[in-house]
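Here is the promised in-class demo. Please do not try to memorize the tokens; focus on the logic of going from shape to residues.
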């Protein structure tokens, strides 16, 4: 098809509006524009492409998937022309990669940078999405695709008197573009999640006076073992790239790594060490996938957790500090499992101290620093919030999205996110969410589910355009069933044994639900492929908005259910039965 050939039925400015110019949005723009020939506008708040890699510029920011699999696999030229310099690339290199892709595919001409979506409303009279931006513009489209990322809205806890503090403050998720000067400063870092674990060693290595780390929950971190990739490394990767990527897309975690054993429940600790030590030395996610039942079997996980606790104790010189860094309240990997470079060694420095806020809580901020509940005033020149994100749903809910009958997404998700396949929401026609809630997303190597989603969305839009069907929307029943299925699967794992941002627990007032899909990338992609092959089972396809309202509120029968009804009542009107099916 020719680029920007109009194929859709509605009278709108664009066939599709896409929000977000990270990994998801760039590929979505390419597929819709260059392979379907649709007119597309991509709206991006930042002044450049990159998504999370544009904003997360904090010291030590680095990818924790290996570079050769943290990339697109859809374009042979891109895979052949781009060569990564490190096993785990730093933020500037990942950003440069996405810039390279945008330029290679000539995507910038259809991206509106420096523009934030303030609302998106499905207008029932015209059957179009009306997308308003902060520059006063309104863009209309038949399809509305959110590609805003899972970790894109920074969160700072509401510490008492926080605004009284007069020193420098930064959040790792919104780091300034200009260099930050650490020289001779007293620095506080609040948070020891993934970004904190990357930031803390880098700040400690700067010429600072003192670093104080405020920790609420200690984390299990495995060494990354980063190294440079030379030409020989890259030639080996290129020779096997097709096989590597096929394995990644067929794996539950999106990683092309083999497990060592099904379980550790029947092993002694000596046996455990024999299995884990080579993976510990090799570093990275190979450690995470050593045992197949790590996240469902408490016996396996406790043995792996015990191994990690001893590694932490062995790395930290001061026994009291070491014990504060040893997690005892949750199983390994039930919270986001970070990789690290010299994190635990950092606490052996004379100018680095640790405050356990479960023992010594923060009382309030002062003009000069932080007062803890033991009455001590700690003075700081700089406070860094490594306090994470309003994950998975935060950015979507802030966009003021309104579907049919005036229903807002915030109202629809008042009790927690409800989606069908993480791809669409009942009551919101022609809206697609790339790696939305209840899809694998953050539980996997992200480019793999991103490619799965973008390709499914693109194929679906292509089917609708080719078939002349203007509207698609999940049924309410399919959405309820998928939401229940997602939670049922989570309950079978160890994820639900601990408070985490996977469970929405880091944001006060959010409903406690398990948000990502825990069934694995491989099973998930087979599921969405089967849904499409069955004629979009669980979706309502309609010629008018009124049809969506009539048909989308009630369940549609599957083929086998229809056959059972016909067998039970041979006199049933066939036309009625086909309409139900």
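The designed amino acids, position by position:
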């Amino acid at each position: 098809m020719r680029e920007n050939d109009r194929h859709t039925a509605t009278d709108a400015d664009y066939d599709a509006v896409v929000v977000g110019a990270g990994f998801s949005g760039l590929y979505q723009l390419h597929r819709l524009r260059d392979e379907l020939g649709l007119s597309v506008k991509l709206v991006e708040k930042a002044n450049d492409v990159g998504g999370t890699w544009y904003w997360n510029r904090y010291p030590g920011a680095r990818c924790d998937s290996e570079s050769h699999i943290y990339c697109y696999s859809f374009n042979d030229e891109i895979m052949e022309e781009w060569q990564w310099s490190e096993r785990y690339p730093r933020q500037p290199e990942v950003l440069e990669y996405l810039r390279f892709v945008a330029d290679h595919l000539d995507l910038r001409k259809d991206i509106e940078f420096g523009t934030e979506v303030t609302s998106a409303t499905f207008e029932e009279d015209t059957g179009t999405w009306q997308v308003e931006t902060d520059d006063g513009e309104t863009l209309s489209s038949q399809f509305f695709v959110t590609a805003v990322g899972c970790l894109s809205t920074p969160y700072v806890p509401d510490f008492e008197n926080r605004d009284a503090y007069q020193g420098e403050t930064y959040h790792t998720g919104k780091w300034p573009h200009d260099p930050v000067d650490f020289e001779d400063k007293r620095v506080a870092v609040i948070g020891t999640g993934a970004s904190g674990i990357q930031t803390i060693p880098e700040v400690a290595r700067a010429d600072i006076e003192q670093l104080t780390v405020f920790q609420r929950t200690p984390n299990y971190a495995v060494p990354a073992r980063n190294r440079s990739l030379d030409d020989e490394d890259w030639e080996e990767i290129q020779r096997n790239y097709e096989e590597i990527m096929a394995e990644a897309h067929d794996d539950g975690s999106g990683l092309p790594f083999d497990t060592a054993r099904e379980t550790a429940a029947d092993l002694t600790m000596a046996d455990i060490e024999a299995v884990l030590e080579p993976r510990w030395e090799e570093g990275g996610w190979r450690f995470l996938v050593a045992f197949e039942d790590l996240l469902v079997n408490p016996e396996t996980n406790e043995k792996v957790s015990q191994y990690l606790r001893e590694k932490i104790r062995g790395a930290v010189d001061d026994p009291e500090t070491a014990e504060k860094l040893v997690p005892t309240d949750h199983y390994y990997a039930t919270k986001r499992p970070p990789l690290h470079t010299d994190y635990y060694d950092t606490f052996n420095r004379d100018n680095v101290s640790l405050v356990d806020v479960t023992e010594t809580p923060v009382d309030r901020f002062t003009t000069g620093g932080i007062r803890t509940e033991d009455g001590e005033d700690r003075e700081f020149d700089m406070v860094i919030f490594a306090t994470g994100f309003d994950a998975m749903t935060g950015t979507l809910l802030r966009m003021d999205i309104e579907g049919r009958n005036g229903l807002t997404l915030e109202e629809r998700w008042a009790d927690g996110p409800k989606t069908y396949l993480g791809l669409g929401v009942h009551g919101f026609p022609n809206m697609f969410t790339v790696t939305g809630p209840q899809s694998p997303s953050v539980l996997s190597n992200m480019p793999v589910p991103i490619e799965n989603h973008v390709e499914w969305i693109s194929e679906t839009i292509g089917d609708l355009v080719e078939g002349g069907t203007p509207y698609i929307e999940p049924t309410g029943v399919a959405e309820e069933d998928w939401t229940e299925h997602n939670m049922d699967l989570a309950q079978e794992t160890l994820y639900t044994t601990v408070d985490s941002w996977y469970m929405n627990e880091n944001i006060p007032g959010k409903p406690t639900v398990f948000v990502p899909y825990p069934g694995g990338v491989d099973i998930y992609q087979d599921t969405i492929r089967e849904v499409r092959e069955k004629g979009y089972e669980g979706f309502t396809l309609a010629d008018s908005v009124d049809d969506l309202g009539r048909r989308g509120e009630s369940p549609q029968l599957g083929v086998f259910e229809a056959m059972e009804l016909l067998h039970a009542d041979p006199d049933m009107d066939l036309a009625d039965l086909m309409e139900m099916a």
